[in-house]
Each structure stands twice: as C-alpha cells, then as structure tokens.
Amino acid sequence: MKCGRLSTLLWMAGVFGFITVFTGNTAMAQPGNRPAGDRPPMEGRGPWRRPGQNTDPSANLQAQTVRKKIVGNTYKVVGALRDSVSGEQVAFVNVSVLNRMDSSFVKGASSNLDGYFEVSGVPAGEYLLRVSAIGYRNFYHPFAVENNTALGTLQLKPGSTTLQEVRITAERPLYAMDGEKMIYNVSDDPTIQTGTTEDALQNAPGVEVDVEGNISLRGVSSVEIWVNDKPSKLTEENLKTYLQTLPANALARIETITNPSAKYATDAEAVINIITSAHIKSNQFVSFGINGSNQPFVSPWVSYMWAKEKLSVNLYASGRYSYRDNTSEGWSMSRQDSGNGTFDTTLYQTDTAGNGNRSYSGNLFLNVNYELSPSSELSVNGGGFYNYNKTYNNRATEQYYLLPSPDTLLYRIGDTTKAPSGNARFGLDYTKKFDNEGHNLRIGINSSYSHNASDEWYNRDYTLYTMPVQDEARFLMTRSHNYGFSLDARYNRPYSKDGEMSYGLRADHQGSDNDYRRYNDWEKSVADTLRTYHFDGAESSVNADVNWTHRRGGFTISTGLGYGLGRTYYNYSDNPRPDDSTFYTHSLRPSIHLTYRTADMNNFKINYSMRMRHAQENQVSTFRRYGEDSYSTGNPDGLKPSYTHSLEAGWQKFYETFGNVGVEGYGRLSTNEISSLTDAEYDDLLERIVSYSIPYNMGTSWRYGASLNMTYRPSGFFNVRLYANVYDYGYRMDYERNGIAQRIEHDKWSWSVRVNAWAKLFDQYQVTLSANYNSPTISLMSERKARYSLNMGVRSDFFKRKLSVFVNVQDLFNWGGRYGSGSENTNPYYLSESTNKMVNSRYISVGVTLRFGKLELERNAKDGSSETGDTLQ
After folding, report:
1. ∠ CA 107-111-117, rounded to 5°
2. In Å, how far from its chain's centre is CA 417?
3. Cα separation, 384 vs 425, whole angstroms
4. Per-residue DSSP letter, 214
5. What does the DSSP 8-state code read for residue 34?
6. N or C terminus: fewer CB in 10 A for the chain?
7. pLDDT tens digits, residue range 270-281?
8. pLDDT (mean) for 632-643
9. Which residues pair with 710 in a beta bridge?
C-alpha cells in the first residue's frame, strides 16, 4: 500500500487519538507503586502501618501527629530508616523528595535520633524519595502523594569498605568501563527508577530499542541477551514481555560488551548482561497479541510466564504469514587481456528480474527453571520450528557474445520453488554458586536436529538465438539433514576482592547429510549428472580458554587466551567429479583489555585481540557446484589460515545531566584474509562463458578509522544518540590468472552516520525516530552502493500495561523502493553491476499486545530497599 508521508503521519496520529479517547487516557501505573486502594489508612483509622512495617512505638507515636491535612493542598510524608543488616535506626540522614519526571528537588529533611523523618509541604503528585547516608548506598523509592503519606520502614544497605581502622565510602559512578564491559549502574540513576527494564536499556550506552521491542547495540542486531551472567534462553516475545514488565528499580546494573571475549562462548557480535537486584517471588503472565503490516505479513502469538519461589516456566507459541516482492536489474561484462593494459570484451549481458516470496511458519518453545537449592539451579529448554516457503522468480536475459565469434541469445527464465523445513532443539543447563562473590560453575548441554527440503520447477525459453539451442525444463530436488551436539562448561573463581579467574571448555560436533538431485525434465526421467551430487560431512572441535581480570584503583586489566582444535570431514559423491578429504585445524585467540576511570566519570580504554580463521570445507574442496550459468569451487592450491589483529583506543566522558561523549580510534590488520573472487571463463561442460567464484588468500587487508558517539540525555525518559564513523579500508592481493601473475591493490575511505531519538511522554507514549546513512564501501574486487533509511514509530501502554499498541513506519520516504541498493564487481576481467529494489520497501507495521497477570518481587536483595515486596499487576 503506497501512501504519502503526510497521510502516513496523520494516520498514525488518528490511530493513537482513537485509542486515547477510547481508554480515557488512563495513566500507566509506575513500577513499584501501590494502587491508591492499597495505601495506608489516614484519618481516624489508627496508626499508619503497611504489611511488614516496623512497629517501633516511638515511630508510630510520632507518625500520628501528622494525620491532619496541611492547609494549601500540601501534605506530610513520613517514614523511618533502618540498617538492613543490624536493624538499628539510621540517624541524621538527608532525605530528599524529587519530581518523578525530571528528578528536580522539591522538599527535603533529615532523620532524627530514632531514624524517623518528616517532610512537610509536599503538594499532591508523583515523586521519588532519595536517601543519602554516609556508609550506605544511595536509596531511591517511588511514591505518590494524594494525602498525608506514610512510607513505612525503609531498609538501607551498607555500601562502604573497611581498610584496617579507616572506613572509606565512595559513590559509584553512573557509567563506568570495567575491562571489556561498559557498565550502567541503574540502581544509582534516580531518573529511571519509575520506568521499566526496557526504559533502562534505552539509557545504557549504545543500546537501542525500537517500538517493536527489538534490541540492537551500536547498530548491530546480532545481540545476545544475558540475565544475571547467564544466557536468557527466552524467545523473542518472552524476552520483550520480561523487559516491558520488570521494573527498572529491580535492576542493579546493565553491562554491554561490544567485542565479547572467549569466556562468553557466543557467536553473537555483542552481549547485553542485565543484573537484577530483586528476586522474582511469584510471576504469572499470559500475553498474546498480533503483529502485522501492509507488506503484507501477519503474526499471532501467545506467551505464558509462570514463577513461584523455586520453579519458573516460560512457554511461547507463534505463527506467521508473509509475502514480499522484489525487483532487480543489472549488467555484466566479461573481458580478456589484449596486451598493453587494454582489454577486449568477450560477452555483454543484461538481466531484469522480479520475484515474490510467500512464507508460512510456526514456532514453539518451552523453558523450565528449577532452583535445586539456594546455591544451585537446573534449567531445561526445548522447542521446534516449522516453515514453508513458496518462491516465484522471473528473469529476462540478453547475452551478446563478441569473441571469438558474434552470437546473440535472448531468453526468459521462470521458476517456482516450494521449500518446507523444520528443526527441533533441546538444552540442559546447570549452575552452582559457591558463594555470592562470583565463585560459580555453569554446565550446559545442547542438541539440535533440522530437516530441509526444496522442490524447484525451472524453465528457460529462448526468444532469439543465433547458435543452436533448445528450450529447457528442469526439476531440482534437495533434501538436507543436519544435527548438532555441544557441551559447555564455565568455572569462575575470584582470588580476591580485586580479581578473578575464569576457565571455559566447549566440545562441539555437527553433521550433515545432503542430497542434491537434478533432472533435465519435470517428469524426473532424465538425470542431470553435472549438477547432481550427495554431500556427507562432519565437523568436530574442542575449545578451551582462560581469562584473568584484576582491578587496582581506577584501573582494570583483563586478559584472555583461547585455544581450539578442529577436525573436518567431507565427501562429495554421485557425481563425475567426486571429492573427499579430512583436515585438521588449530586456532589461537589472545586478547587484552585495559581500562581506567576517574572519579568525574572520564573513562579510557585500550584493547587488543587476535583471531585466527580457517577455510571451510567448501573453500577447500575442488568439487564444482554448478548453477545454471555459474559455478563455485574451492582453491586447488589450498588456503592458509588468516590472522586478524585488532587494536582499539578510546575515551568516554559521562555527564550526570547531559549524557555522554566518546571518541574512539581503531585499526585492524589482516594477513592471508580469505575472500572469494568472482571471474568469468569459457566452460567446456556448459559450452559457454560463465561466471565462477573461487576463494583466495588476500595478501593484506586493513581498516583503520575513528568514531564519535554522543548521547544527549536530559532525563531518563528522553535521549538523542549520534554515532558517526569514518574509516579507510584497503587490500593488496597477489594471485595467478591463466598462469600470469596478477597484483591488485585498492583502498577507499567510507563513512556512516546514525541518529536515534527516543522519548517517553506522559508516562504512556513512546516515540522513536532513526535515520541511517552508509556511504559506498568496498570488499575484494567489489563495491557496495550507498544505503540509507528513515524510520519512525510510536508505542503506547494502556490499562496499567495490560494493553500495548505500536505503529511503525519503515523507510518513511520509500528510498528502498525508489533507489534500492546494489553492488558492483570491479574485477577488470569480469565487470558487473546490479541494483535491487524492494517494491514494498515503505510499509506500516502495527502490533497489539494484551497482558494479564502479576509480578511480585522480593526486595531483600535490592540495594537499599523497603522490607516489603512490590507487586506489578
């Protein structure tokens, strides 16, 4: 569906206007607040008391003296402070009442000798209580004032360290670097205490959450979410429910790792670790909803989360239907060397294509977690996925042969592919905590199985030709079976309060059994022996790593060393050119991270890491995998392992009220980098000029540059982020072509910029805006065209978050449909260019979510919290 920019924005405004009117603009209950009906009794109903409140007579006697309403619509707020360890009264402590929206100061007072405090002259409204005490961690507590208010007994947690006879207390910075981690201390941020975990993520450096709840870190969407130092094991929608319902004041900190070391044992490009300070006592949420867009796609889903003391269960099921259209056009030119640095054109080809994809899928996931004892827990997870794809392709091709003799071919290609697939997985995790200082053991076992099938009907009809050819009709059948098994173990052992050791071991085995059958007719009576083959392969590996972290003053040093052994076996059969082999590899992965932070939140870092990369079986085997007009093969001369050295140095400055500014310089040098080269030649079996790809060891490649990141954050519910990057990428490669030594050297400066804005308005509406631009970039003998987009979304919660609605407009100006994206091949012997356009690049997506249930937290573990639990319903 096409629509103008103005009509799109008006449509979005109309949808939310209707919802607001329909719901009566119901204000969202803030996490940690009790509903009005649960507040302590006021006049004429005896002493103020909450469940779990300390009933010290002196505190209650003084509390009764403030029952009378103050003239001028202002009220009194009272409470008592206790040490969470000793239970003693905390006297002469500063207590501040802050505006909940912007954390501005409203009123203040101090506790008396008995730990009792009284703040007078507080107007009705939503507030945040801040308690600052020497020897204790800062304490924050959200509350509302509609009448005289008793907050009960509040527990302060000691936050100091003892050195011989001297007691030293230091307030933690809001943001800090610690080795490879960037830390956001959520519990020390008063501006976010009334929000959700998702709101807190928006304030973590580099983290972005769109209106649909999708998370990225510095633009990278390959992010793994951990909770309390373990992979979350939650599905996408279960994770969104968790993040949107868990209060921010139940968090201790959020850690972001943009270059995970070996100890994280992840294939993701980044890790976000959410550390909670409150235990989920009970939790029961049923969520269901439907997402859709005018592309079109529609996806209904249901999620169930249940927890009670030691046992928790997460169940998720979903379905999806989608259809997408794309168009592409391009040209290619094959040339041969004619001497004196000139070339003769042998073939010129143009292509125009369109395709559509229709997809149906379903997903089921179950996770069960059981606390065996206060120091150990067991987690079991399993699930399955099914997908059915139906794809239509149409392509018109014109080929003009110039050498050795002129020929012309004009033909059209059409094909239809049906591809069902499914997978199943099972996992088991065991965690043992030996103490609360980080001494623990984690063991995980995971297995998976998948089956993929594909049936393709292909036809090629010639409309003009000067060489003897005939129309073609083919049937292509693929059956694939894959399985995997892995065992992971991680042991962490602090050797002092300033340092720790971490040891990891991973064993992995994966196998494949694939059958590729090709026929020269749809009746499957004439086999195409050139393209038919059977593949049988297996990969096994064992990886170990050791990591050391030590802190001294503002310095943190973290070093790691990983080593791995691998075995790869492959066998190509049922083909005139079979190939099989077994080869072994070893890899080394050292890293060192050094950071330094100052008391005024200046952070400095310097990191170095080295990675080895080995060729895969398809890059080693000389077996030719033929397509219709191309083939790919491995390098017959063998490939050396590649080494990539990365160095980063950066400075980051955080400000309490502004946000942060950071500058980073980086460099990456790769030797023997493995990359594929696309070329063209005359093939004797196909009897025409075709393109082919073959991997090579590039002599050297490099990438060095600088980046700027800046966040403007005047409050915890509004921020604007800027991330800009400029770098030079280049390579130098020596290889042989037809027995002649060739050298290619090329480099190019590129840049990118990304701007994201996020705001939460009236405690109810969330608005996001993101703009991206990437200039043209190069790789081995190819160049990718510029890419840009502008997206906008709005989300709102109603009825105390029981109902959530989002509207998102992707590619607001339809740049993907009007200009598209593409690439160019710059090999002087094979020039090509292609442009891909998405017909429905601009689309509107809408989602509705309903939630029913409650979340009850035990606050005993929280930094400076009340005795009682909080309930979110």
Report:
1. 60
2. 31
3. 6
4. -
5. P
6. N
7. 788 888 765 555
8. 87
9. 661, 722
DSSP letter at 22 equals H
Query: Taking a C-beta distance cutoff of 8 angstroms, is the pair 204, 272 a contact?
Result: yes
How many whole angstroms separate alpha carbon 211 and alpha carbon 758? 9
Contact criterion met (CB below 8 Å) for 704 and 745: no
Beta bridge partner(s), residue 473: 459
Global pTM value: 0.69
Rg (CA), the chain: 31
How far apart are the C-alpha atoms of 437 and 85, rounded to whole Å?
Answer: 18
207 has a pLDDT exceeding 70 = yes
The amino acid present at 802, given as its one-letter code, is K
Res. 234 pLDDT band, cuts 50 70 90: low
Q: Tally the residues of the chain.
A: 873
- List the beta bridge partners of residue 755: 722, 771
> Across the beta sheet with 625-626, what order do the strands follow?
625-626, 630-632, 688-697, 674-683
Looking at per-residue confidence, does 618 or 4 come out higher? 618
Token output for 76: 């009194």
CA distance 662 to 666: 13
Confidence label for 98 from pLDDT (cuts 50, 70 and 90): confident
Instruction: Spell out the residues 6+ positions from residue 537 whose beta carbon is closer than 8 angstroms to its own.
Output: 511, 512, 568, 569, 570, 571, 617
Residue 208, by phi and psi: left (phi above 0), alpha (psi -120 to 50) or beta? Answer: beta
Q: How far apart are CA 456 and CA 416, in angstroms?
A: 6
Task: Give exposure, 51-74, as e/b (b: 16+ Cβ within 10 Å).
Answer: eebbebeebbebbeebbeeeeeee
pLDDT at 346: 85
| CB-based contacts of 850-853 (< 8 A; 24+ apart in sequence) | 850/287, 850/288, 850/289, 850/802, 850/803, 851/241, 851/245, 851/285, 851/286, 851/287, 851/801, 851/802, 851/803, 851/804, 852/285, 852/286, 852/287, 852/802, 853/283, 853/284, 853/285, 853/286, 853/305
Residue type, 251: L
Q: What band does 515 get if pLDDT is binned at 50, 70 and 90?
A: very high
- Residue keyed to tokens 């005939």: 470
Going by the DSSP 8-state scheme, the letter that residue 262 receives in this structure is: G
Give me the pLDDT at residue 450, please. 93
How many CB atoms are located within 10 Å of the residue 828 CB?
Answer: 12
CA distance 799 to 559: 49
- Enter the tokens of residue 125: 């409204």
| Nearest of 320, 329, 316 to residue 360 by alpha carbon | 320
Instruction: Give the integer Cα–Cα distance in Å for 691 and 688.
Output: 10
How many alpha carbons fall within 13 Å on the CB side of residue 783? 16
Q: Give per-residue pLDDT as tens, 175-202.
A: 777 777 888 888 777 667 656 787 788 7
Q: How confident is the model at residue 212 (pLDDT cuts 50, 70, 90)?
A: low
Q: Decide: residue 771, CB within 10 A, 0-12 exposed, 13-18 middle, 19+ buried.
A: middle
Residue 838: pLDDT over 80: no
Smallest CA-to-CA distance from 787 within 801, 800, 804, 773 is with: 773
